[in-house]
Design a protein that fits this description.
The structure is a single chain. This protein is 40% helix and 19% strand. It has a 5-stranded mixed sheet. It is of the alpha/beta class.
């Protein structure tokens, strides 16, 4: 699968989140060239502040693979991961993170901080932002525009 195809799958998840009234963030995790898990934000629906797309996708992959270490897996997410999600990716041991829109308020894979590159955590996960960034950002902008009306 191409990076673009993976991000498009994450965008589909983000659109599902928006339809549910959730902040439209979607994530997929790829292992062995196949999407193993798909998730979107479910914080409002579940009343769980940790129900971010990335965390839910990590949980689903770990369950499907029957292991907590997600080496040889790559995460694709429509919005730059926050501190919790970047930390979750470190703890899961994903090989790489690709994200769409940058989050200049809470992004912890480069914008505000680069948690996956901090040697103190013993991880060096390559993080690449800007993949289909305009589409990812447009979905977020439209969601919040409608919320303000």
């Amino acid at each position: 699968m191409t990076h673009e195809a993976c991000m498009r799958a994450a965008l589909e998840q983000a659109k599902q989140a928006a339809a549910m009234g959730e902040v439209p963030v979607g994530a997929v995790i790829v292992c062995g060239g196949e999407i193993i898990a798909r998730a979107h934000n479910e914080r409002e629906h579940t009343l769980d502040p940790t129900a971010h797309a990335e965390i839910l996708a990590i949980r689903r992959v770990a369950e499907k693979l029957g292991r907590r270490r997600l080496t040889a897996c790559t995460m694709y997410v429509t919005l730059e991961p926050c501190p919790m999600c970047a930390g979750g990716a470190i703890m899961a041991g994903v090989d790489a993170i690709y994200f769409g829109a940058y989050d200049t308020k809470a992004g912890c894979t480069g914008s505000v901080y680069a948690l996956p590159e901090d040697a103190a955590f013993g991880a060096n996960i390559p993080c690449t932002g800007g993949l289909l960034a305009e589409e990812c950002q447009a979905l977020l902008d439209e969601f919040f525009r409608q919320k303000r009306q």
